[in-house]
From TrEMBL, chains A, B:
Organism whose genome encodes this protein: Serinibacter arcticus
Ranges where the Enoyl reductase (ER) domain occurs: 10-342
Name recorded for this polypeptide: IMP dehydrogenase
Keyword Zinc: yes
Lineage, broadest ranks: Bacteria, Bacillati, Actinomycetota, Actinomycetes, Micrococcales
Keywords for this protein: Metal-binding, Oxidoreductase, Zinc
Segments passing through the bilayer: none
Reported cofactor(s): Zn(2+)
Highest taxon of the lineage: Bacteria
Molecular function terms, GO-annotated: oxidoreductase activity; zinc ion binding
Span of the signal peptide: none
Length: 344, 344
């Protein structure tokens, strides 16, 4: 089959690889019908060292079950399934706590031997991981369903962990697909004021349609001042940080109000950061977030896509065949595309 | 009057200073009847630079109202009052949010022109700040009442911000007075497993009486291993970090379970710390805490001391007159005393 491999920063190729096979009795193998490129794929696209064997790419997928392990009970050949970016048994203590990305039998497709930007995918812990899409679901809904694999529910995770609820004032840092998803999720959770910090007008326009009440294009000290101006000098209750770089972190503690929360879902591209009296401690600020527990939210979110309550698939503004995925990376890196859907 | 001043690290003296006076119509002046030395006073005791004019010390007090500003309505001359370590108007937006240490009219006695290790104290925003002790309260309860000025309610703040509740597994790092208070508070909030990390046996014995179910004397990697052993390899739901030094922070993220919370009330002696994928983010760990909103908890805690439900004053193991306060600092710094009550 064909799969996407990255060999070094900027070097993405579609190559022939062996088909994945059932390795454990809890696996299924799916034929991937919908995949996409994630903002986090751009991190290795910027800095991956020479990797002669290539790194398998992609962690978001919808597909049709083609092979099934002996112990799989909940899935059948022919089922169309959404596959979250991390697999999980959905029964362990951490899954029961709602932190499926820390499943004791879990793992991440990102960098795994079988990843999603490919014609086929091996799904470990398939009973726990994959969620069936009802037969007969309209094709037009599939972009939105695909966002339940990662991007929309990552925005939702930020909002949930951040404690967004009715009446809360929220700022979202980042106008990428995760940031826009966080806007939509915050609106669904009842936030009344949603300030989107971003400067790409086509994106912030979509953010307004998703529920942003204000857009702040300024960054750094100017951006902080603008948010304080909007919030009567108080700052926001919740910051949803959907970038992952240090300036976004610094902006976060500049705009959060005393007792407020910074919820991060942008994968941090730093390990150390300010957390002392001058940044978090003095204002009793809470810092939370992490890899989204997509699986924990998926079954509740599915009907809201199917009935049209939310349409998070609008973050896809381009679609390309698998063979042109290198162009998808280029478009997203150049910010010429917000998010590219891939049809293997 | 006599007041305590620190002139440099290790140099604490009781000197004659002018009596405090009403400066704003919202002030009262109290005669301090009970004060004490805080673990956080030991930070300048270790590292205060030469300060020729001296730094006023002390931020915990009970006293009797002697003078009263024209706008004070809730207090009368002769009232015995508990004064939290920070003053606050108790009406502003942050006070209403329960973050009284961020009051827009607030401030900290620590380092202020009038501080509590003295015969008299000026209390700003007195209506909002001071809480009256019922007349006729038995003298034996005053050590416990004094802990409502800071230490017990700082432990309580850690537990509340950390989300301690029935069924949660909690670790407390630090066997100082704040750590032991955090143990007592966690037990009051219903934690079933409370692991106290400390190595001073007299203190950890008191911790057991306060509700600790386990004591771990080891530190660093050994301490982390011991906590994981107690928790079936999972780690704890909540870490209450009552030290403020980097090794305690590192220990915290080593023992917290996925999705768990680290709540800090030890004033951090660092600004930058690990918060990236390897420490907090990867496990969806929440970091919270800050200066305790003592005032927000004080009225609810008062009856629990008066009726004997809790006896947090047991953290005081010595009592000295104001004139001997330098010895109190020495005793606490040498860990010969847990916490010293001062009678001006």
């Amino acid at each position: 089959m064909r799969a996407t491999l990255m060999y070094k920063a900027g070097d993405v190729r579609v190559v022939e690889v062996p088909d994945p096979e059932i390795e454990a009795p809890t696996d299924v193998v799916i034929r991937v019908t919908h995949a996409c490129v994630c903002g986090s794929d751009l991190h290795p696209y910027h800095d991956l060292e020479d990797t002669p064997e290539g790194r398998r790419m992609g962690h978001e997928a919808i597909g049709v079950v083609e092979q099934i392990g002996a112990d799989v009970e909940r899935l059948a050949i022919g089922d169309t399934v959404i596959v979250p970016f991390a697999w999980s048994d959905n029964t362990c203590v951490h899954c029961r706590d709602g932190i499926t990305t820390s499943c004791v039998h879990g793992g991440f497709f990102d960098g795994a031997p079988s990843a999603t930007q490919a014609e086929k995918l091996r799904v470990p812990q398939a009973d726990g991981t994959a969620v069936v899409v009802p037969a007969g679901t309209d094709e037009s809904l599939f972009p939105s369903l695909l966002t339940l694999s990662d991007v929309y529910l990552t925005g939702h995770h930020a909002a949930v962990r951040g404690g967004v609820e009715a009446g809360k004032t929220v700022a979202v840092i980042g106008d990428g697909a995760v940031g826009l998803s966080a806007v939509l999720a915050a609106a669904q959770l009842g936030a009344t004021t949603i300030i989107l910090m971003g400067r790409h007008e086509a994106r912030t326009d979509l953010g307004r349609e998703f529920g942003a009440t204000h857009v702040v294009a300024e960054r750094g000290e100017e951006g902080i001042a603008a948010v304080l101006e909007i919030t009567d000098g108080l700052g926001v209750h919740v910051v949803l940080e959907a970038v992952g770089h240090m300036p976004a972190y610094e902006q976060s503690y500049g705009i959060v109000r005393p007792g407020g929360t910074i919820s991060r879902v942008g994968v941090p591209q730093y390990e150390d950061a300010p957390v002392g009296f001058a940044s978090l401690f003095g204002k009793n600020v809470t810092l939370t977030g992490g890899p989204a527990a997509v699986r924990a939210y998926l079954e509740a979110a599915l009907p809201t896509v199917l009935d049209g309550t939310i349409d998070p698939g609008r973050v896809f503004d381009r679609e390309l065949p698998l063979g042109e995925i290198a162009e998808a990376y280029r478009l997203m890196d150049a910010r010429e595309a917000l998010k590219v859907l891939i049809r293997p």
